[in-house]
Design a protein that fits this description.
Two copies of one chain form a homodimer. The first copy, chain A, is of the alpha/beta class. Chain A is 45% helix and 21% strand. Chain A has 15 helices and 17 strands. Chain A has a seven-stranded parallel sheet, with helices on both faces. A five-stranded parallel sheet of chain A has the order 5-4-3-6-7, sandwiched between helices. In chain A, helix 7 links the parallel strand 4 and strand 5. Chain A is globular and about 70 Å long. The termini of chain A are far apart. The model of chain A has no long low-confidence stretch (mean pLDDT 96). At the A-B interface, helix 10, helix 15, strand 14 and strand 17 of A face helix 10, helix 15, strand 14 and strand 17 of B.
Amino acid sequence: MTEIKQTIESRARAAMKASITLANLSTAIKNEALLNMAAALVKNKEEILKANAVDVKAAKEKGVKTSYIDRLTLNDKRIEDMAEGLKQTVALPDPIGTGDLYVKRPNGLEIRRVRVPFGVIGIIYEARPNVTVDAAALCLKSGNACVLRGGSEAINSNKCIVSILQKAAYAAGIPEGAIQFIDIIDRDAVIMMCKLRGIIDIIIPRGGAGLIKRVTENSSVNVIETGTGVCHEYVDVYADLDMALNIAINGKTSRPSVCNALETILIHKDIAQKFLPMLKPALEKRDVEIRGCERCLEICPDMKAATEEDWATEYNDLIVSVKVVEDVEAAIEHINKYNTQHSDTIITQDIKNAHKFLTEVDAAAVYVNASTRFTDGFEFGFGAEIGISTQKMHARGPMGLEALTTTKYLVYGEGQIR
Amino acid sequence: MTEIKQTIESRARAAMKASITLANLSTAIKNEALLNMAAALVKNKEEILKANAVDVKAAKEKGVKTSYIDRLTLNDKRIEDMAEGLKQTVALPDPIGTGDLYVKRPNGLEIRRVRVPFGVIGIIYEARPNVTVDAAALCLKSGNACVLRGGSEAINSNKCIVSILQKAAYAAGIPEGAIQFIDIIDRDAVIMMCKLRGIIDIIIPRGGAGLIKRVTENSSVNVIETGTGVCHEYVDVYADLDMALNIAINGKTSRPSVCNALETILIHKDIAQKFLPMLKPALEKRDVEIRGCERCLEICPDMKAATEEDWATEYNDLIVSVKVVEDVEAAIEHINKYNTQHSDTIITQDIKNAHKFLTEVDAAAVYVNASTRFTDGFEFGFGAEIGISTQKMHARGPMGLEALTTTKYLVYGEGQIR
């Protein structure tokens, strides 16, 4: 155990050492490195596929879920997509070195606030090799060294990819040590990473609720919480019901496994009689299981009953909970009790109810007449996404490159004392 | 214990309930409340002084330090100053409701990012009754409900002050429950507050290193770390030595108990022979104890020797550690090893060394040719200060009203799906 701990700490320290040079590197060198990394991935495609095949074989033998295998599996197209992602990062504006405040004080002190990298970012994720490339690219572009820890089922793929990325980055002038990978399968490796306060500056967990809980509960390093989404659609009495139906279908079925998918639909009592008989067959046709409140069951007696637990559940699956509510106040109250502060939407043509919902629902993104599925760095126009923050500190909602930076005050004097 | 826990949780929940209305209150009502609170403090001066006398008497009987008694003691002037502080908060611009991003996406979605309160802020501080007023005012102006927990030695003063503030605020239209005070002396009350994730949104500890450590290590609520400052002055080979001396004296002696005071002076080896004999008598004349490295002792043999521990110590007292270093690189290396990422300054006339120091020292505020004592919300022109953040997440350096806010995306559609 001590040996594992030492390995992790020494890698994090190497990242810390590299981070000082990396923080002050020109955009040109960082972009050059990203292009080199893209080319190297394509060039070494065969090697990556070979390593990936080992992981896929082992995962299949372990009998894991098909969706899991799918995310783990690489092919020519997926490697080219990863390389494409690196090239897109080149096109993003460099967040480092820009200033957002300049004041000259009465005593002559000049104070500038400039954007600087965090230093070392730890990213803990599941068995998705593309996240390795993505995370390394966004950290590098924002001037941060990184310590990556991917799910153990992708260990061979990740080791191979990281080694290719490191060589390509360092050859382009990125300081050695800037990209670190923890190739230790032991689950405690995650906890050990989380204890490196003073070496790792922030940790971003990317993955399911279990992973995120383990990280937030054990970390002495500051964490940006991402991802869990119990998202709601509230169909107001003044809703366009066709629009509401469309958004319900889209929110639940377009990609049920993601965090911005819909989990609960709330319906105003005065339109429930009309809307539920529209909603039920439309969702059932798409294989969605519906779990309704008592009042739903009065209208549709063949509906499965929802339990208290359902309201707080992120199904990540073709299941949805439905509840009839008194009014917009009751909808907001339900949402503020059960949401994960991710994304919630109201469907209404009434400006007062829309305004009330927007101001009173406590979530990173609150919508009027649109699908919660849009909460996403690319859909928001940020050109990148390292995750979706569901906390209020530092960054909220989809996080682009800027979320990977902090600020620093530079103060210029001529001998001023206080 | 369970009873204490229930009391704390129910107060925090009351704050949470009030926070929804408070978040959307007009600036006019908030300002009205602040003025009411100011008037009420002055009007009830006698009552406050009586409660304070009980605390001061008990503290004296316990035999606590004089400086401690001084911070605890109120008088007419101090109560008027607290009222003045409330009035100054009225003059500050309201951070809530301003937007910092607006995009219309190709699909017609309109996305706005607006500034909103956190919700409920927990503030844990020591036995300084003025912090009670200050914290309540800044939370209120930024639209946040607050749960205050001051040092137990000030319990009677704080209870009296909070009750006056509550009455005055609620009479002006602030929702009841918005200002909460934990009048429980038990030290575990702090830990219990720190566990209320989901009710309290952030916790800001204000006080010494011990308090801050207890909070950061035990909190499941996000914490903004404030305050500890091991601040450095590096006297470069190209320094104006009179300026360097002036800044050393100011940094160490103008207010040794505060976090932006100087703790360590690093001196370039080529000027040490000249500068140390200037520095030593000047500091000693002001009762400063100097602890030097080996090379210092070669130049001034009667100097007390510094130990490894000294380099990492925030004395908060008339003690300073002094070290001779090879060059600017060695100075930066020492600082990045021992500083608390608060404030560090270089004294130099050389633009290259100044630039190197500014970019490579990892601290909230990095100075050239000025005293570290300026790291302060008022000195920076923010008009307020809830503390000085020494972490990189969310806010860094002096925190004004904006640091007490987060953002929220409001998204307007016309039925868009993805």
